[in-house]
């Protein structure tokens, strides 16, 4: 009698415990952050989510971007957290194909889809299903010193030929036209992307990224012919091959270089002296008939397929998509919120670059996110070699093409 | 021991009887197990992986020797890396000579000399990451100390790390700094171990200077020389840290070495099988040195 | 002694020699001096382009404090310390036992085992990289913790240390062991009470050597660890370079902090260090 009584109590007790733990969910978030304000932004979003959902606790682990890129492949294949930070486009697709990301189409209600617009929705969709939530994006522009431009008598560019012509003018005045640091060669890919987008258009560019067009195609060669005009006009800074991009920017901050093509995170590296005299302009036109496209790499959050607590993770993911949350997250961190309803941060240059990018027909994700890693690593190194030795273009393109054929064998 | 016997008189324990036979394997076991798991097994697995095509998360496809064919036939970077490794090897074979020169220079007694010798040795004790940083600044094209000196001497500035012709040599120079320090210490110790009577006897015969060095001293330094050569060879082929920190293999792969190229292919291009093939080539290159060392050391170890 | 002792030369020659030695020393460790100077330089100096001249003001405390407040440098140093000390002790312990077995016992396969340890020492890290990483993720899940580095370093350094210990113990007289056996002392007790006290010098030499190798390791820190919480100082310093791109005084200070411990250990235990470098090798 006594035994069964205590047993009953035990059963009741444990079931009550189990019931309450079913309501106390934990969501593990592995966030990659680039700076202290970024970290604060994530912590802020977590805090407000927990307040709105007292039965869910969010555990956050922070990583720097490079480590995140390396570690994420391990997480996804072993025991992943519930939420990861990653990128849209091909970067996401490469995890969707082997089934490593959870389908989150159910949080993408028609309302939410309408709020974000087709561009954003496409960026995280594969075969009509959604696999993530875009939270922020950066835009690219040519940032330039208006004082240096004025002193040289150069006006903001309308066409690519204007850009090339300006290099001679700047050089004559002892100014380096384009600040550049290509030790990590991805800044060069910005130049390639834009010349290709302006010359051949978004459709061709994406075909090239997806291995449907060969890198030895004539259209690709025209991109390099355009680029060579800049090399011949001595546009680029000397010795850029061993400078980090911020070291290249230092030249522009000191007024010794006139412009730099870069994403809008450059804004945080401007000095108090250089920021007031720095402006942004759109990459100039090459072929006016080609519809305008921009590089706007999008950052996203996803749920791994093997995550332990998918239901609560979905709640958090949906929360991250709200306009007010995205506004709060991007305020101090100087990046643009993905949700068009969210107002961008109060920063002159940031809003300038955002408005320059808006209204474009299509958005590319940047070559290292649009094509396979095996191809982009060879391509970006090739761009670096091309700038120093344009005569080696034939061999460079063949190498990239070989890598592309291996990565896209159809 | 005694208590065991008193409680168990009718059969001494198995352990007591056979411990001289059982103990050795037990002593070796922990080391062997760790070594087996973390060194032996990985070597075998890498060899196996090099016959596959894999990106780490997708399908692991067997491709036989395709990776090697691609390396040798289609990959210009592989040949650049191999060529650079040869440069490293040749340059590092000079390290013992420079080390000997320094050792001879510093082989004097005195309290101050002890301190000085330690300071000359410091480059070896510092992490290669820090060495790479120091030399990166030294060679910097704009404000490096080297260019400062050149400008002061009215000479034109040079950009070593940015130039595909010179970047590898600039890194090798950085690598030689700690390596020469190592060889110097080897020779300093070797010099103090030389039998002084030999030297005295030779001096009394009137042998001195270069002749003394060449005919008497150097032969006595043979053990130190062989060590210096082996560590220099191994050091030359291990040169990952400096390449990674100073140029990242650039400009455009011109200063890469097999050790770094392998890392890049695995983590950058995400071609795990291909990276394993590159590692295997590096392993084979090192094998030559292992064989030489084994042939030298095993006979004298058979006691 | 070769070359001829300088004490026999004239006072002028002696003076000339010592001057040459000290000038040579300054040139030889110029990079270290330069970094040390930069680490106490002020930001104004750097912005004004005064990279190599004498600092206009010395900011020793400020710069070094900034390193600790603006980065996880303390965490990195702590990690390095734990990883290095545990690995070194582990490797020496395993190697002493194995070295004892391989030098004082004849058993089938002992030569082959010795050859195995020697060969393994020459394997390039790249050959081990992917499998060890996979091991630490899938088999013994220690990836991204200091234990991944500790386990690997113990295992790898055991190769070299075993060879070293084996050579050292081989020199110990067999009579000591025989005498103990006659007294009925068991094998493990012989090891602990006879061998270990005698190999202390070798252990000290190994301690210093392996400390330097493990502390300065960069490659495995990159491969096996991602989080700041588990990063040792070599990889941490490199990661910080990105955020500290134009703040050279911080990078310099950080570099010197990272470089200090092996240097300190070296100066404290010089004799053992040098004996370690030359001993195990010259005997082979």
TrEMBL record, chain A:
Compartments in which it is found: Periplasm
Entry keyword set: Periplasm, Signal, Sugar transport, Transport
Keyword Transport set for record: yes
Domain of life: Bacteria
GO CC aspect terms: periplasmic space
Main location: periplasm
Entry's family note: Belongs to the bacterial solute-binding protein 1 family.
Listed name of the protein: Multiple sugar transport system substrate-binding protein
Species, as recorded: Rhizobium lusitanum
UniProtKB/TrEMBL annotation, chain B:
UniProt KW Transmembrane keyword: yes
Protein source organism: Rhizobium lusitanum
Residues covered by the ABC transmembrane type-1 domain: 81-295
Stated family: Belongs to the binding-protein-dependent transport system permease family.
Annotated membrane topology: Multi-pass membrane protein
Compartments in which it is found: Cell membrane
Segments traversing the membrane: 22-44, 86-106, 118-139, 169-191, 212-237, 272-295
GO cellular component: plasma membrane
Lineage of the organism: Bacteria, Pseudomonadati, Pseudomonadota, Alphaproteobacteria, Hyphomicrobiales
Gene3D superfamilies attached to this UniProt entry: MetI-like
Keywords: Cell membrane, Membrane, Transmembrane, Transmembrane helix, Transport
GO biological process, one term: transmembrane transport
Listed InterPro entries: ABC_transporter_permease (IPR051393), MetI-like (IPR000515), MetI-like_sf (IPR035906)
UniProt-listed Pfam families: BPD_transp_1 (PF00528)
Main location: membrane
Protein name (database record): Carbohydrate ABC transporter membrane protein 1, CUT1 family
